[in-house]
Design brief:
This protein has 80 residues and is of the alpha+beta class. The protein is built from 2 helices and 3 strands, in the order αβαββ. A 3-stranded antiparallel sheet has the order 1-3-2, with helices on one face. A hairpin with a 4-residue loop joins β2 and β3. α1 runs parallel beside α2. The longest helix has 14 residues.
């Protein structure tokens, strides 16, 4: 999943993409720790991390995290 950095877009892409992923398939999230530098901190709606964390939390019983380098998360679908 690599496209928009807006949290709502990333979450939507993850959920819709997961429905298309076959059991045993791998989904890769890019730019996990990316954020836009702002003077007053980080806008959580403008970075992928909160959406990826929400997805992996809500789908914990359907996925296995197989790798988590600094800027990417690899998950495998283990059930429908």
């Amino acid at each position: 999943i690599d496209g928009s950095h807006l949290a709502c877009d990333v979450l939507c892409d993850a959920v819709l993409g997961f429905r298309l992923l076959k059991t045993g398939g791998v989904m890769i999230f890019d730019d996990y720790n990316w954020h836009e530098g702002l003077r007053n901190g980080i806008d959580l709606m403008r970075c992928p991390k909160p959406a990826i964390d929400a997805f992996t939390t809500l789908y914990f019983n359907k996925i296995q995290i197989i790798s988590a380098p600094l800027y990417q998360i690899y998950i495998q679908k283990i059930s429908e």
